[in-house]
Specification:
With 139 residues, the chain is of the alpha/beta class.
């Protein structure tokens, strides 16, 4: 199976620009209720994932929310744990990553961010597939 069937396209995905202020990033993550979101640069390349923990550490280090207005999101990304896959990746590669991440960012062959695949969507796909196979065996 091709992972494109599971892809949530960029225009349906919440992400933040790496040049946005930390305060803007914090407002976006709070507004959408996510614990982490992808970060892309001005060239639409995936540069990492920013998490609630990254924001918390930035706040602790700066001492005030006002100071966060001077720092960018790219300044606070602490971990490179959320790896991206190319759209041509096989399902095994995707499954290995999704076990450790809530979502997997997907890039094209040029490294441009094109969307995400979520753990929820993968579980739903396999659940639906199992249901269909069960229905066929009951006929």
């Amino acid at each position: 199976m091709n992972l494109i069937f599971l892809l949530r396209p960029k225009d349906e995905t919440v992400y933040i620009n790496s040049g946005s202020t930390v305060r803007q990033g914090l407002e976006k993550i709070r507004a959408h209720g996510f614990t982490a979101i992808p970060v892309i640069n001005a060239s639409d390349e995936y540069v990492g994932t920013v998490s609630e923990g990254d924001f918390l550490w930035a706040l602790c280090e700066s001492g005030s929310i006002k100071a966060l207005e001077k720092r960018t999101v790219s300044d606070i990304i602490r971990s490179k744990r959320d790896k991206a896959v190319k759209v041509s990746a096989d399902m095994n590669e995707l499954l290995l990553l999704i076990m450790e991440q809530n979502f997997v960012p997907v890039t094209d062959d040029r490294g441009k961010f094109i969307g995400i695949v979520t753990r929820r969507d993968i579980i739903k796909y396999f659940h639906d597939k199992e249901q269909k196979e069960g229905d066929k065996s009951n006929e």
